[in-house]
TrEMBL record:
Taxonomic source organism: Ogataea polymorpha
Keyword Lipoprotein among UniProt keywords: no
Family: Belongs to the class-III pyridoxal-phosphate-dependent aminotransferase family.
GO CC terms of this entry: cytosol
The name this protein goes by in its record: Aminotransferase
One Gene Ontology molecular-function label: pyridoxal phosphate binding
InterPro entries listed in its UniProt record: Aminotrans_3, PyrdxlP-dep_Trfase, PyrdxlP-dep_Trfase_major, PyrdxlP-dep_Trfase_small
Amino acid sequence: MTVDNKETSYVFQKQINDKGLLCVGAKGDGMYLVLENPHTKEQKVLFDAISGAAVNSLPHQDPEITEAMGQFAKESVYTFGAYYANYAAEDLGKFLCDKSGGDFASALWTSSGSEANENAMKIIKQYHNELKDYKRCKFISRKQSYHGFTTGTLAIGDGSRKYQFADILIDESKTPKVSPVYPYRNQKPGQTEEEYTKELLDELEQTFIDNDPSTIAGMIIETVGGSTFGTSVPTKGYLDGCREICHKYGALFMLDEVMCGLGRCGYPFTYKSPEFGLSSGGPDLCSVGKTIGSGFVTLAGLLISPGVKKVFAEGSGSILGAQTYHSHDFNCRVGLAVQKKIYRDNLIENVRVNGAYLKEQLKLKLKDAKYAGDVRGAGNFLSVEAVKDKATKEPFDPKEKVGTQLGNFCFERGMTIMGVTGTIESKLVNNSELVCVGDHVTIAPAFTFTKEHCDFIANTIAGAFADLEKKYAA
Ligand SMILES: *Cc1c(COP(=O)(O)O)cnc(C)c1O
């Protein structure tokens, strides 16, 4: 069957009237994707600067991992986690709990970040039930955040993905939202970082008070905001302040590090960053995903602090919620092999060192770019926000979809990137038209990226901004 001369796709995803480009392999050092046009069979090789959705920690087809996977396939056995788990799930839990320096004591392994966060909401609720504190039923999160595509996580998330489903989600009265940390736009002229942080924390505390603090179950935020508004890092003291306010009112404090964590921002856990992290200790819960299986397997997880674990251990001793693929033996084996390799080869340090170089190069090469408003992020999780006017920070007309355009320009120049519209806000106008204001591009290459890769990435992004200038030259 053809539609508009295009064959419809057998994969019900994104665009069904066109198969799009299909991946047929990786190339070279595993940092390159080979894409094929299914109609013409024409191929294109692209440097993978975004690793899908910031998924790869290791390169595609890493031979050490693929070799190990062959062995794991022979050794692993599927069991239902509710009855019998396995050594791999235990070992991977211990590995990350050890790396956290005691911040976590247990882990739940799921197949996706959405499930990890969805389970987290239910674990937080159960935690309060264990304490016979049954009234707590609200989750505070932030505007412009993303926590997954299940209905629970969409409700605590924000941005363009949720509007169509608003009437089937947990009511907004139970999911109050506070402002994200976004100094580029929201720190007022003359306001110090400290004052800006205080403003954000005052807003959070007021949100607790306005929503009856005794009914707040927890706060869930991304340590570094991911895809929706482009890797804006917390201000100093912000995370400490959030945790303190949560605990003051008896709520749990949870960080979502599905996209930004496990080395992506240059530290084993992003909340441990000496620049913007917690001054000591960790959150009550922390979700991880994406890089943990590096795209080799569908793996994500939820890490549980000793304090939260203790409440369950000394209470009912059981966690409600067993999904078919929790603690999946094969997936956990692969996840552990990926993590061990990252630590053995000091790849998180590579992210920190080369990431700093890349950020510097981006700033340097975009210094005179007319439309490059802000370069931000940590480790190799970096974004450039595009603006129509650098002085006023005025965004482009949403109809121009500049974020998408920048993504296309990078593609033409041989590189994958995440080109996003809706950086500042997304709203439904007249109940039907989705307007996404603000534009940015985000990168997140595999942790093995080199200085040469950095130069290529910075040059390509600078080239894409030059393409944009050429297009809008009056
Ligand atoms: C990707 C992402 C999720 C959802 O993970 P999936 O594996 O896509 O379900 C949740 N939170 C954040 C911050 C993410 O980036």
